[in-house]
């Protein structure tokens, strides 16, 4: 996919927000990011896994010592929420890159896993 073509497909904005992007598209952007910097040599499965775990640590720091927080984070400053979004993204992006480098189709695997979970935990039994 050409760069211009991807920008047109991914960066469909409404009120300044990206409306829709697929895991495959994010994976393509990450591949391009690594290629442009000659960083593919660093993106081994082990390095990516360690990088992702490091980012999970940074994500955990945001919640550290805060106690339980309400859903939607109503009392958080915008800057805190923005920081949270960045750390969540770092975890997601390393996960997507790790899956890609391991030749795992993450969208397919995750969809299958949700289906498997539904069989393991049928809603009718849980509701009883
Ligand atoms: N070898 C690398 C280094 C970085 N990244 C990308 C993936 C992450 O989304 C982001 C991580 O960048 P940093 O290591 O600078 O981490 P932070 O953004 O969390 O910065 P800091 O640790 O200073 O808060 O950059 C990457 O793909 N490959």
TrEMBL record:
Gene3D superfamilies: MazG-like (1.10.287.1080). Its EC number is 3.6.1.12. It comes from the Eukaryota. Its cofactor is Mg(2+). Transmembrane segments: none annotated. GO terms for biological process: dCTP catabolic process; DNA protection. It is found in: Cytoplasm, Cytosol. Coiled coil: none annotated. Keywords: Cytoplasm, Hydrolase, Magnesium, Metal-binding. GO terms for cellular component: cytosol. It catalyses: dCTP + H2O = dCMP + diphosphate + H(+). Hydrolyzes deoxynucleoside triphosphates (dNTPs) to the corresponding nucleoside monophosphates. Has a strong preference for dCTP and its analogs including 5-iodo-dCTP and 5-methyl-dCTP for which it may even have a higher efficiency. May protect DNA or RNA against the incorporation of these genotoxic nucleotide analogs through their catabolism. Homotetramer. This is dCTP pyrophosphatase 1. It comes from Ananas comosus (Pineapple). The gene is LOC109714400.
